[in-house]
Amino acid sequence: MIVPGQDVAGMESINGGSAGSFDHLMQAARAQCGSTSCVLVTNPVGFRTQDQLHIHFRNYNGGGAAMKSRLEKALCGTSGWRPFSACGGGKAQLFGGFPGVFSAVAGAYGGGSLANVGIAVFFTTACGGGMKTMVLATSHCSIEHSISSR
Predict the structure, then answer these.
(1) What's the pTM?
(2) d(CA 58, CA 88)
(3) Do 115 and 44 form a contact (C-beta atoms < 8 A)?
(4) Any idea where the domains of the chain sit in the sequence?
């Protein structure tokens, strides 16, 4: 698990103005688990066990493999944010490299607070052109336990 060096309540601390200062944390999580069998996850307010921003990095389970496959089918060959249903409303985007994840998601939500947003980051080679990053942002829910084991 990756946590910031200072007290940060959680996703509610991230918005368009502050997102860039948190992007390095997602990069640190990727450094721990950046293969095509990994997923990086944050949970929104109300769907986490601690009031400290933290990023899980894990190998995904069968549910994660199914989610990754759905994302690949929906995103390969596309650009920009696409509507994506996962535990409620969500959106997903395929990136050619590894983006500033929090900055990208904050932009997708108009720069406002990400308090109610959960993020899952998958890596894929299925779309051609080497390793790509799929970012899934969900609202008012968490997919953590359906895509990875503790």
Answers:
(1) 0.97
(2) 23
(3) yes
(4) 11-142
Q: Give me the architecture of the 11-142 domain, per CATH.
A: 2-Layer Sandwich (3.30)
Mind giving me the DSSP string for 81-140? -EE--SSSSEEEEEESS---HHHHHHHHTTTS--TTEEEEEEEESTTSSS-EEEEEEEES
Which strand (E) or helix (H) includes residue 59? strand 56-59
Per-residue pLDDT of the chain (150 residues; tens, 9 = 90+): 999 988 899 999 999 999 999 999 999 999 999 999 999 999 999 888 888 999 999 999 999 999 999 999 999 999 999 999 998 789 999 999 999 999 999 999 999 999 999 999 999 999 999 999 999 999 999 999 999 987
CB atoms within 10 A of CB 73: 9
